[in-house]
Predict the 3D structure of the following.
Amino acid sequence: MVCTILKEEIDCIFMTRQGCTYNGGHCEPVVEACEGCDHLKEVDSDYYCVTSANPAAKWNIGSCNFATHVVTQISNGDVAKVNPLKASKRAASGRS
């Protein structure tokens, strides 16, 4: 349903006919790590995340999976692990 409390006109999974079912009945403001993300919405001089009700929890275990301002680096120098048993079977069958 569409949020009618803070993030007006935003479809929210926590909104029901009885109101907001999120912990405490309202979303938490964004944390400093969220600055620069495209999912922010300003409401009454505070910024809230459109995709997450508690942005601080998203940053507890690393980068937020919704963050648009974070670029992940993929190293080309990493070598994939090879199972030696499977490699020997491939070599014996002539596959590469």
About this structure: Residues 15-93 form one domain. Helices lie at 55-58, 84-93. DSSP finds two helices and four strands in the chain. The chain has a mean pLDDT of 82.
